[in-house]
Each structure stands twice: as structure tokens, then as C-alpha cells.
Design goal:
This is YkgJ family cysteine cluster protein. It comes from Bailinhaonella thermotolerans. By secondary structure, the protein is mainly alpha-helical. It has one domain. Helix content is 46%, strand content 2%. It is built from 7 helices and 2 strands, in the order H-H-H-E-E-H-H-H-H. The protein has a two-stranded antiparallel sheet. The termini are far apart.
Length: 166
């Protein structure tokens, strides 16, 4: 699949995510994330290399903290290029912004819809993810236990830090 085709497929997914009226106070919740390789490539081309997810998790396990390298003075330096998972922040039921930022129109996406979009994005041009694997990923991400774990991570680990000024 050509890069332009991958970009178009990702754009179609981005277009399904409601725009959140971000006020830039949520940098304290930017932790380890996974993204499509093309998203990682575009962000790296903008001068911000984001390590692979496993490396991010290793840093978190070793130090007890991980902050996204795209954060500069508490703001995302690649906001227009941010991957699907970051676009879902504040736009999905499980990923609701603790600072009150919400979609301007349309309300929050259901977890099933949100994680379905994430699964779709990760599956683009990925021959290892057949329809069965995508369905398993979608179900796993929509599992209530996974949502509880994600909420606990954000609440206990990330929001335990003092908020950034602003």
C-alpha cells in the first residue's frame, strides 16, 4: 500500500473522531501509546522521534514515569500530526478529559466505536492483522476490564502528578 493510500485511510479514521475543544491542560496524562507506523514516521519527519511502545513501557517500568517526547512546555508540538489514540483523548467515554474538554459537537464516542477506530488504524496495511485479529483486538479494547485498567492508569498514575500551569 502506498504512503498516500495509508495517509488517506488514516485521514478517514481521523474524520470520524469528534474534535475536542482542547485547552492544553492534559499533558500530565500523556503516557505510553501505540500508533500506526506511518503515524510514527510522520511525527519523526517533523523532528520528534517517538520510541516504539515497548520501549515506552520499559521506561515506565524502570522509572515509574513516561512523558511523550512531543510535549514541549506542556503542549503537544505535533498536535496536527497526533495519532489516533491521542485524537481519541477527550472524545471517547473511557478517555474523557479530566479537565472538562469535550467534543464541541456530537458528544463522546462509545468505547466500542472509539476502540474500533483504533483497531482499524493499527490494521491499515498490516498483513499480520487479518479480520479475525482485528475483531479480537476490537473486542479486547472494548472489554470493560480493559477500560477499567485504562481509567485506573490515568487516574492513579498520570493524574497523581501536579497539573501543568496554564
Amino acid at each position: 500500500m502506498r504512503r498516500s493510500d495509508i495517509d488517506a485511510a488514516l485521514r478517514a479514521i481521523y474524520d470520524q473522531i469528534p474534535e475536542v475543544g482542547c485547552v492544553g491542560r492534559c499533558a500530565d496524562v500523556c503516557g505510553p501509546i501505540e500508533m500506526h507506523p506511518r503515524e510514527r514516521q510522520r511525527i519523526a519527519q517533523a523532528g520528534v522521534p517517538i520510541p516504539p511502545w515497548q520501549e515506552q513501557l520499559d521506561v515506565l517500568a524502570r522509572t515509574g514515569d513516561y512523558s511523550c517526547p512531543a510535549l514541549i512546555e506542556g503542549r503537544c508540538s505535533v498536535y496536527e500530526l497526533r495519532p489516533v489514540i491521542c485524537r481519541l483523548w477527550g472524545a471517547a467515554q473511557t478517555l474523557v478529559c479530566p479537565y472538562g474538554c469535550r467534543p464541541a459537537q456530537g458528544g463522546l464516542l462509545s468505547d466500542e466505536d472509539a476502540y474500533g477506530l483504533l483497531a482499524q488504524a493499527l490494521a491499515i496495511a498490516n498483513p499480520q492483522l487479518d479480520d479475525g485479529a482485528i475483531d479480537r483486538l476490537r473486542r479486547s479494547l472494548a472489554n470493560p476490564a480493559t477500560r477499567v485498567t485504562m481509567r485506573q492508569y490515568v487516574t492513579r498514575t498520570r493524574l497523581g502528578r501536579p497539573p501543568l500551569p496554564g
